[in-house]
Amino acid sequence: MKLEEYHKILDSSAFIGGYTPSDEKNYTIPEVTEELKDLKSRILLEKSLEDGNLKIINPKKEYIEETERLAERSGDILRLSKIDKKIIALTLQLKNEQEKVMMITDDYSIQNIMKIIKVPFKAIITEGINEIYQWEKICIGCKKRYPHNYPSTQCEICGSKIIKKKRK
Ligand SMILES: [Zn+2]
């Protein structure tokens, strides 16, 4: 996988992890630039902008709506922040406009969505996940399964605690 062949979308973890854009095909959203607080990643960001190696784009509304639906379906909705969803929306948009896109992120929930939309990703610090997983809730007492978005933390059958679990 040659990085220079791809249009790369960067989230905050890419900058925090020290990813350095080395060509002009790097993209992020305005919120990521505001989110970066530590000096090292701020310098990296400013240098990338100065060098013309980073473009800041606001994704279109239709892609944000598509992301909401995707997150809902995958069970990642609760784990994705507003910024995460916007970066995914930008990925969907670029995927539609460009030939090859790749996400640079250490965030597992974002990586999970990339698997679903078939966009390759590269992790900086952590290793990427290999499988698509979904979340479900399960009672620790009677083992009854609940959907990932079940609102209560108590089992309706036995009254035990319900925990969130990874499902393959
Ligand atoms: Zn139970």
Task: Give a verbal description of the structure.
With about 170 residues, this protein is of the alpha/beta class. It folds into 2 domains: about 5-120, 5'-nuclease (Rossmann fold, 3-Layer(aba) Sandwich); about 135-165, Single Sheet (Rubrerythrin, domain 2), CATH 2.20.28. The protein is built from 6 helices and 8 strands, in the order E-H-E-H-H-E-H-H-E-H-E-E-E-E. It has helices at about 10-15, 30-35, 40-50, 60-75, 80-95, 110-115, and strands spanning about 5-10, 25-30, 55, 100-105, 120, 135-140, 145, 160-165. The strands form 2 sheets. A 5-stranded parallel beta sheet has the order 3-2-1-4-5. A 3-stranded antiparallel beta sheet has the order 7-6-8, with no helix packed on it. Strand 6 (about 135-140) and strand 7 form a beta hairpin. Helix 4 (about 60-75) crosses helix 5 (about 80-95) and helix 5 (about 80-95) packs parallel to helix 6 (about 110-115). The longest helix has 16 residues, at about 80-95. The two termini are about 25 Å apart. Bound molecules: zinc ion. Zinc ion (ZN) binds near residues 144 and 160. Zinc ion binds near residues 139, 144 and 158.
